[in-house]
Amino acid sequence: MNDLAERVEEWMVGQMPIIRMHGGTSVVREADPEEGLVVVELGGTCSGCGISDVTAQNIKRDLIMDVEEVEDVQVKVPDTGDMGASTVEGGRGGELQFSTESSDHF
């Protein structure tokens, strides 16, 4: 893993503990320091969650502000129909957990 990817992973752990607290997972799929592009994928209970779009926007905004060479952030969140996918296997958050609750469960 490159240095930027490691720093983004550390940032995610420190800045976004709410993801894990709610049973979600995240993984850095790409971190290109030359392009300034970071791709983060959310999974677990983030899939189909009614506030995952807010979480994604917060990650985009804050990551660009906090990590100097990051200029563009893409956050991928599988929709409810993809909840069985293992796209975020190995991401932080421990075992993948999938919500069967509606998006208004908060």
From TrEMBL:
Record lineage: Archaea, Methanobacteriati, Methanobacteriota, Stenosarchaea group, Halobacteria
Name of this protein: NifU family protein
Chain segments carrying region Disordered: 76-106
One Pfam family of this chain: NifU
First and last residue of the signal peptide: none
Domain NIF system FeS cluster assembly NifU C-terminal: 17-74
One Gene Ontology biological process: iron-sulfur cluster assembly
Organism name: Halorarum salinum
InterPro entries: FSCA_dom_sf (IPR034904), NIF_FeS_clus_asmbl_NifU_C (IPR001075)
Molecular function as annotated in GO: iron ion binding; iron-sulfur cluster binding
Start-end of Polar residues biased regions: 97-106
SUPFAM superfamilies tied to this protein: Fe-S cluster assembly (FSCA) domain-like
